[in-house]
Amino acid sequence: MDGKWVWTFLLLILLISCAKPKEEPLNIILIHVDDLGWADIQPFGSDFYETPNLNRLAQEGTLFTNSYAAAAICSPTRAALLTGKYPARLGITDWIRAKFQGYSTSGELGEYEEFEGRPLETPKIQGYLPLEEETIAERMKKLGYHTLHLGKWHLGEEGFHPEDQGFDVNIGGNDLGQPPSYFDPYQAAQPREFYEMKNLPPREKGEFLTDRESDELVQFIENTEGPFFVHWAPYAVHTPIMGPPDLVSKYEEKEKGVQNNPEYAALIENLDFNIGKLMEYLNEKGLRENTLLIFTSDNGGLIGNPDKPVTVNLGLRSQKGFPYEGGIRVPTIVSLPGIIPQGKEIEVPIITMDWIPTILEFVGLKSSDSELEGKSLKGLLTEKGELAERDLFWHFPHYRETTVIPYSIIRSGDWKLIHYYETGMDELFNLANDREEKNNLFNEESEIANELQAKLDQWLIDTKARMPIEKKNESEEI
């Protein structure tokens, strides 16, 4: 062979051998737990519940210590997670099926619910996630991802389920807000049609629901070719509070702390076990280092009856449904081995809407969508950027029994203003030195309160938020 061609051939071989191998697309698993409180897992301070697998996930990833749900209740946060928009903009500001709050499938503006003995009429909510909204699943499908919704949906009736909103596969998701039972056949004592979890037929009598969910998740990944996006929304740890009997017995015998509910502890440890099962599967299949894992919750923990609390949000005030930190601050862990630092804590405040731009940037698409109201956290997570300081907002224009009155919130820096729509009740806290919100500074720091109120008022206008209104006197109606 001619010497010239020999050298050409050798050069070609060298170039091929040195070529950079094609990178595999990143897989995404977003675990969105139901009602998991701020301190309901050991990495965030639980002194009773045992979560060894989440401990490992925290050691392998990064914790956000100021992570917020978009609302203190489920449906609004779930809508925000899927769309990247504030619940106030979507009109989904209470949980769907909240008929006592004026639920209607049309959610027309100008319709209000009247509460006897209360000074305000509250707006009816948007009763489903509109199909016109582009969900994270629809965005991922455009990028070639196979999409799975697993578990709780609670964003509308038939026609507005996950398979109508961009998910290739839906297992368990309909308008159900909680499981009738955690034990197969997953039926209530008096079964009703809408209590049936979609595409999750009975399989083995007595099987625990979260065990079944993780099996379905592993099977989906096993049968999927190409990159996948999974929205795993466990029904746990929502009511009814029940756990595998062996774990309940374990916690009944364990020395009690401030948190001391054996059934709830068993529910949490079982969730932890199944997250561990997922992590082991990813490791065995060589997928762990190519899968972004996000673990978070849809609102704060439920205390319920204070004489026998479901949980206690250690170090925070109050619980699910309330405007205090115990209602909106949630545990959050993010892990991607080799990319996201291990064992790190980030104090920067973040919120539910941040997950869509974060995921999009991790898969190589820096979003320019002006409708997205969150910010990408990739720079923070990879230590290659910072997040500009911003204000965060919440809006709950509803009554909840006798304990919660309509409110809106702004967090600006360390300051948090809670504006109540019944007069004379506003609260101002400095979270830097008062995380338990014990010291109301509204009167002492009136200038700061007024500044925050002005920002909040403008945000409510910008989002076209549905507002409570004062009732008309009978004399005014004549």
**CA-based gyration radius:** 24 Å
Mean pLDDT: 90
The largest beta-sheet arranges its strands as 7-6-8-1-9-10-2-11
Approximate strand percentage:
15-25%
Instruction: Compute the number of helices.
Output: 13
Low-confidence stretches: 10-21, 100-110
Helix content: 25-40%
Order of helices and strands: HEHEEHHEEHEEHEHHEHEEEHHEEEEHEH
Specify the structural class: alpha/beta
Q: Oligomeric status of the shown chains?
A: single chain
Summarize the biggest pleated sheet. 8 strands, mixed
Alpha carbon gap, first and last residue: 106 Å
**Globular, elongated, flat, extended or rod-shaped: what is the shape?**
globular
Q: Would you count the extended β strands for me?
A: 17
Characterization of the model:
It is a single chain. This protein is an alpha/beta fold. The protein has helices at residues 3-18, 52-59, 74-83, 87-90, 136-142, 209-222, 245-253, 262-284, 325-328, 355-362, 378-382, 446-462, 474-477, and strands at 27-33, 62-64, 67-68, 112-114, 120-123, 146-151, 169-171, 228-233, 291-297, 332-335, 344-346, 350-351, 391-396, 407-412, 415-420, 427-430, 469-470. The protein has an eight-stranded mixed β-sheet with strand order 7-6-8-1-9-10-2-11, with helices on both faces. Strand 14 (407-412) and strand 15 form a beta hairpin. The longest helix has 23 residues, at 262-284. Residues 10-21 and 100-110 have low confidence and may be disordered.
